Amino acid sequence: MRVLDRIATVSGVCGYDTVTSAAWRGCPKARSGDYEKAHALGIAAIVPPRATEEMRQEKVKSIAALRSAKEINMRPHLLLCA
Questions:
Q1: CA–CA–CA angle 70, 74, 2 (5° rounding)
Q2: Residues 6 or more apart from 55 whose CB is under 8 A from it?
Q3: Can you give the pLDDT at residue 12?
Q4: Rounded distance, CA 10 to CA 52, Å?
Q5: Each residue of 37-46: b (16+ CB within 10 Å) or e?
Q6: Model pTM score
Q7: Stretch 13-23: mean pLDDT
Q8: Please, which residues bridge with residue 11 across strands?
Q9: Integer Cα distance of 36 and 7 in angstroms
Q10: Which residues make beta-bridge pairs with 15?
Q11: CA 64, 66, 69, 65 torsion: positive or negative?
Q12: Do residues 36 and 8 make contact, with C-beta atoms less than 8 angstroms apart?
């Protein structure tokens, strides 16, 4: 949701009016308008909603996996959501 709240367009993020170096010219799709169209449709256009029962089952499976794991490998950025 924060992405949608704070980034309305990819202009200046992955597409630029001026090429600053040969190494980075921006993404060729940055001017396609695809992100902006999805942004206008809302979060469900980017991250499709899942059924409540499906989410409940996935939570049960993930908790079981955590409880039975000898160790838990995590990417550091996931701790920000924890």
A1: 145
A2: none
A3: 84
A4: 32
A5: eebeeeeeee
A6: 0.53
A7: 80
A8: 15
A9: 9
A10: 11
A11: positive
A12: yes
* 45 φ/ψ angles, rounded to the nearest 5 degrees: -75, -25
**Cα separations in angstroms, 39 against 12, 15, 33, 50, 55:** 16, 16, 10, 19, 24
Give the C-alpha separation, 52 to 49, whole Å: 9
CA-to-CA distance for 27 and 14, rounded, in angstroms?
6
User: At 64, is the secondary structure helix, strand, or coil?
Assistant: helix
Instruction: For the chain, give percent helix, strand, coil, nearest 5.
Output: 50, 0, 50
Structure tokens given for 9: 């367009």
Position 10, amino acid: V
CA distances 10 to 14, 66, 81, Å, are 6, 37, 24
Query: What's the CA gap between 82 and 75, in Å, rounded?
Result: 12
How confident is the model at residue 82, as a pLDDT?
66
Give the chain's count of helices (H) and strands (E).
Answer: 4, 0
